[in-house]
Amino acid sequence: MSRLRDGGWILPASLCVALLLGLLPLPETLQPLRPYWLALVLAYWVIEAPSRAGLGLAFCVGLAADLAYGGLLGEQALRLVIMAFILQRFRARLRFFPLSQQALAIGALLLNDRIVSAAIHLALGQPTLPWHYWWAPVLGMLLWPPLFLLLDALRLGRRGD
């Protein structure tokens, strides 16, 4: 119970919100620009709270996303585990980058995620994503600084006054 009072609810709540943001319906023209919210939120937790977020959490969240989004079972789990592994490997360096450089690194990871997704679709003989789906990592990169600051403020309990 004390863990909930100490802000232990923020990790599961933020992942649930990210999952729900991925389920929000968007107009057909905006659908390709949908950022990968789960990857962004999970990236924050892997960087800032590695004792609470790691490969196991990435796998479980990915399976939940596969079930919620109705995709190939294990695809998002694999994508999130790959991202979490790379983030764990370079966590010590990423933490001390300014937010602008972190955003570039996150953008590269989101681009890597699109490449992994395209490779999975290619290996399974599924149609590849159209070219405009490759703009989503750019939007995710632009969303990283405000998302990082929001989650950091929630995690550390800062108030806006």
TrEMBL record:
Q: How does it sit in the membrane?
A: Multi-pass membrane protein
Residue ranges annotated as transmembrane are: 53-73, 94-111, 131-151
At the top level, the lineage of the source is: Bacteria
> According to its UniProt record, where is this protein mainly located?
membrane
What InterPro entries does the database record attribute to this sequence? Cell_shape_determining_MreD, MreD_proteobac
- Annotated compartments: Cell inner membrane; Cell membrane
Briefly, what is this protein's role? Involved in formation of the rod shape of the cell. May also contribute to regulation of formation of penicillin-binding proteins.
Protein known as: Rod shape-determining protein MreD
Organism whose genome encodes this protein? Pseudoxanthomonas kaohsiungensis
User: Source gene?
Assistant: mreD
